[in-house]
Every structure is written in C-alpha cells, then in structure tokens.
Design goal:
The protein is built from ten helices and 14 strands. The chain is an alpha/beta fold. The protein has a single domain (about 1-355), classed as Alpha-Beta Barrel (TIM Barrel), CATH 3.20.20. It has an eight-stranded parallel barrel. Strands 1-2 form a two-stranded antiparallel sheet. α6 runs parallel beside α7.
Length: about 350
C-alpha cells in the first residue's frame, strides 16, 4: 500500500499523496447556491487527501438539477467558494471544483426561474428526482438548439474562470454519471442529426469543445475531466459503440494535455486497460464499492496514478491517517448524505477525538 502515500505531480501541483476525495453531492448550499461556512469546515477537515474534488457545482441556473447544490457563476458564489478554498489551503490541501450541468436530470421545481431542463434531445429519463415537495417524475427536457449548445460551452468556460477567481486550484468537468455531457454520448438520449449527434465523433464533440473552452480559459494544467464508461445512471445506454467512443474521446482529450482523467469504473477491464494506454497524464481511478483492504492496489498494479474514494472519506475526515495507522474506520450514515446541518457532515469523529464509531 505504500505507493499510495507517495508524492505525485498533478498538472501544476505537487501533491503529498495519491488519494483523492471523490465528488459527492451533499446539498448543503444556500437556496441560491452559495457555499456556506459549514461547507468550508467540511472540506477543510479532509484537506489531508492528496486532492479534493468538490461536489457537483452548476455553471448556470439551467444547469442545476438537485436541491441546495452550489453554483459557480455569480459574485456571491465566488465569495462563498473563496471561504472554502481558503480553509482548505490553510490546512495545506488542494481543491478542484467539479463543474456539472445536469441536463435532463432535473426538475423545474429545483431550478431558479422554474426553467425547463435542456438536453441533447427531447427525451425524458423515465425516472424520478427529489424536489422540495418530494419525489417527482423528471419531465421531458427541451432539445438544445445550436445556440443553446454554444451558450452552455460558454457557461462552462465562465464557471471555470469563476472557480479560479474563487481560489480553486482547478476544475473537473463532469462528463459522467448520466448528466448532460454523458447524455450526448448515449444514442438513447441523443438522437440529433446535426454535428453533435450520430457518429462517435459527433457525439463526443460537445465534451471536447467544453474541454477546449475550459483549457483556453484557465490552462490545461488546472483542468481535469471525469468519465464513467458504460454507466447507465439516468437511464443512459451508450450502446455497442460505447467503448469505441471512449477510446476516441480519451485519445482526443489526451491531445489537450489535461491535468488528469478521472475514470469511474463499471467493470470493463479491457476498456480500462486501453484508456490507461491512451492517456499520458495522471489517471485517477474510482471503483464503487472498493474495500479498505483494496486501497492502493490499482496504483501498485500500475492501473492508476491516483485512487478516488467517496463514502470512506465522507465518514472519516482523517482517512489518510487511519489508513497509515491501520486504525478502524467510521461508518457512513446514509440518512444524512443529502441536506441538513452538521450531523453526518462535520461531526464524524477523528482519531484525535478518541471516539471511534
């Protein structure tokens, strides 16, 4: 396991270890998307991780999907995130803000202005989403015009600039887990007949143009991207061409020299090996359900340069220290994952508190 604790260069930064805090939505921002002091405390508690990737953060009003998620496109958002980044930096940590547009994974009740969701095509998910009034069906989105596509790319660019102004070390583009960018990849969500639909190259075009815009704005060494090949979240089906699309996408993204590729693995070992070969910068691997005794195995085997963990880090602010000492871990309380206050958020005990759950 010792390799996981070794230093690594990621883009513009020298990191103290190869452990990544994976992005996790916690729904504790204000109603207008401003990060709070409690959020600053939460992230600062976990600053010993080599890299923190924040919860999904919308680049625009229409990009919001879930209640009480943060934004990064107004002056108030910048000021709120500045409290977070300052708190993390004071503890010696590094933080990238994940920028995510929800696309069709949304409901007007959750969006400022009660806006209809935007997506590649006017195809609903056939799933439900949490709103302030409880669970509701996600309605049919509005198919994006070419003007919408270009505006959304501009929104990602603007959000990236705002993130840097807020003191973030960089941004991660969310192109995974059923949200807008991945919706362009899936033929059952993208039936467009223009330059953004049909062929593999066309379905990957939006992701590549977003990445290029962000790189042009803040630099490749401060830009990462997350993908989840084969993920069916949000009802997506990437079809038989899915693996070929990700090989093409990865090779094209590699040309941009991004700081990292963050892969959420869903079990396609052959594709993962190909992506490892195609990607020449830092590769972060996130395997859902990975056990404690498996920590460091992918780095040791050369499959990844860094490993990302979610629930373990959520429940253990001192995750790195516990790993190094072989100490027991707290168990995450799923009832407090989304919304609320400090309970199940900033009150998990550390080894220093001499109180292990």
């Amino acid at each position: 396991m010792q390799e996981i604790f070794s230093r690594i260069r990621l883009g513009a930064y020298a990191l103290p270890n190869r452990l990544v805090m994976a992005p996790m939505t916690r729904s504790r921002a204000t109603a207008d998307g401003v990060p709070t002091e409690l959020m600053a405390e939460y992230y600062a508690q976990r600053a010993s991780m080599g890299l923190i990737v924040t919860e999904a953060t919308q680049p625009s009003d229409i990009g919001q999907g879930t209640v009480a998620t943060p934004g990064i496109y107004t002056d108030a958002h910048i000021q709120g995130w500045r409290r977070v980044t300052s708190a993390v930096h004071e503890k010696g940590g590094h933080l990238f803000i994940q920028i995510m547009h929800s696309g069709r994974m949304s409901h007007p009740d959750n969006v400022p202005g009660h806006l209809q969701a935007l997506a590649p095509s006017a195809i609903a998910t056939q799933e439900q989403i949490h709103t302030v009034e409880g669970m509701k069906d996600m309605p049919v989105p509005r198919a994006m015009t070419l003007e919408d596509v270009q505006q959304t790319i501009a929104d990602f660019r603007h959000a990236a600039r705002c993130a840097i102004e807020a003191g973030a070390d960089g941004v991660e583009i969310h192109a995974a887990n059923g949200y807008l960018v991945q919706q362009f990849f899936a033929p059952n969500a993208n039936t467009r007949t223009d330059a953004y639909g049909g062929s593999i190259e066309n379905r990957a075009r939006f992701a590549l143009e977003v990445a290029k815009a962000v790189v042009d704005e803040i630099g490749a060494d401060r830009t990462g991207i997350r993908i989840s090949p084969g993920a069916t979240l949000g009802g997506l089906d990437e079809g038989p061409e899915g693996p070929a699309l990700y090989r093409y996408l990865t090779a094209e993204l590699n040309r941009l020299g991004l700081a990292y590729l963050d892969v959420m693995d869903w079990g396609n070992s052959a594709l993962l090996a190909d992506l490892r070969t195609l990607w020449h910068q830092t590769l972060i691997l996130n395997r859902p359900g990975r056990l404690r005794e498996q920590v460091g195995a992918d780095v040791a085997a050369g499959l990844a340069d860094m490993e990302a963990y979610g629930g373990h880090v959520l429940a253990n602010p001192d995750f790195v220290n516990r790993l190094q000492m072989g100490a027991p871990m707290n168990t995450a309380d799923s009832a407090t994952f989304f919304g609320g206050g400090s309970q199940g958020y900033t009150d998990y005990p550390t080894l220093a508190s001499h109180d292990v759950w």
